Amino acid sequence: MHPATASAAFVNHVLNTAEQYGCDGELLLNEIGLQRERLADPILRIPMHQLRALLELAVRMSGLPHFGLLVGAAVRPGSYGVLGAVSMTSATLGESMSMIRRFGKIVFDSPSSQTHIVIGDGRVLLEDQRITELEPYCACQQDAVLAGWTAFGRWLIGSSAPLLEVQMIHAAQGDAALYDEFFGCPVQFNAPRNALVFPEAMLAARIQGADPRTHKSLLLEADLQLGRSYAPFSVIGRLRALLIEHMPGGEVSLEGLASELAMSPRTLQRKLAAEGESFSQVLETMRMELADHYLRRTDSSVMEIALMLGFSQASAFSHAFRQSRGISPADFRKTLRSA
């Protein structure tokens, strides 16, 4: 599994925000062991643990527990690098959201979360979905993510329309009224997810800076940056990252994932063999890791989990889980609840 990273562009945005609120930027950088020169290249990858350390230290130094909210509120296209640029040249807010799903890893690349979008009943749920426990939870970072999505979306369409709902897993960081004021609706804290909910009609809102020709060029650049982000890592690490991203949709295949890795299925199999694994082994390992997470952290039924992991029937999932863990999924969940 490759390490979690953030773009230098976003880390630089956090640093600039901290300095605007009275923090000593050089002291912050020295404390987390990061040189300012490394932030000059917006596509450079910064370890996620350094971003978390920067956020948490800025909270203490500024005396502002809601610092993450301030970071998000100040987001502009440059904060997200090429993702910001490709989003602001999209035609509609809906198309811009699809850019977040496609290129979000350029800003935050973590094995612990993914962007999840659900559309139905006239509403859109945009969730920063936590899917593993490999990375520590950082409330300040989650505030920055949700507030950033909101501020950027408002900037793109030139409207401050209030949201329908905001849900956060953690408690309010400081005065809860500051959250309600920014989002334009009551925020549900200690909720089961980190998500924004807004009217489906907003997906058709036109982007003020829409530019089809520039957008097409930026898509190529975003694809190149995404490829460079993964290039240093092993084939197994890159495959696991893609499986984490695509598994909840229930559709993964050797051919499809090989294509995303810009190689033929045969080449992918050969490279995996050179690292001592096979596609089926990596797939089953990831399935069981995600199954463990879903059983521990969600109320999804065994059938729902089976479908999210690509099994056609709950019985097939239960058989695979029992072979791996020595216990059925249902009994595994019962032992967790009785503990």
Automatic annotation (TrEMBL):
SUPFAM superfamilies: Homeodomain-like. InterPro entries: AraC-type_N, Homeodomain-like_sf, HTH_AraC, Tscrpt_reg_AraC-type_HTH. Residues 237-335 form the HTH araC/xylS-type domain. Gene3D superfamilies: Homeodomain-like. The keyword Transcription regulation applies. One of its GO terms (molecular function) is transcription cis-regulatory region binding. GO terms for cellular component: cytosol. Keywords: DNA-binding, Transcription, Transcription regulation. The keyword DNA-binding applies. It holds the Pfam family Arabinose_bd. PANTHER family: HTH-TYPE TRANSCRIPTIONAL REGULATOR GADX, HTH-TYPE TRANSCRIPTIONAL REGULATOR VQSM. This is AraC family transcriptional regulator. It comes from Pseudomonas multiresinivorans.
